[in-house]
Hints:
The chain is of the alpha+beta class. 43% of the residues lie in helices and 16% in strands. The protein has two domains: 2-86, Winged helix-like DNA-binding domain superfamily/Winged helix DNA-binding domain (Arc Repressor Mutant, subunit A, Orthogonal Bundle), CATH 1.10.10; 91-151, Dna Ligase, domain 1, CATH 3.30.1490.190. The strands form two sheets. The chain has a three-stranded antiparallel sheet. A three-stranded mixed sheet has the order 5-4-6, with no helix packed on it. The mean pLDDT is 86.
Amino acid sequence: MADARLEGFLDAMREGGLRITTARRIIARNLLAMDGHVTGQRLAARVRAEAPEIDDSTVYRFLEAASELGLTVHRQLDVGPAVHHLADDAHVHLICSGCGTLQEVPESAFRTLTTQFTERYGFTIRPNHFAVEGWCASCLAGDPGSRLPHAR
Length: 152
């Protein structure tokens, strides 16, 4: 199954006009093996451990190409580095401004909002590119361990 997923990913890169080099194959295999949100730095470190000759810039160019082809999605979750994940795992991130809790919700949860923006304003939003900030239920309830919205 993992080999089929890798080959499918590489086939999509080929269809997008990219030549599949040894470096791209190694980077793709490592990306697919990582769980959750992947930073360029974490992926580069993992790739370097296997193939020290692959430069960090090659990894970052790979991530950019994969994103342009729609194979991965990069998101800015906070002030830190952008994270990447496979496009077949479509979700939106909700971040609590009080306690910093990160929650993933299906992209479909924003379908109505996306439709409304398109119909009313002629603008199609991509809610999956940035995290949506707000307040979790615990912070709104006044959990003593969290910063309340009115305390900001």
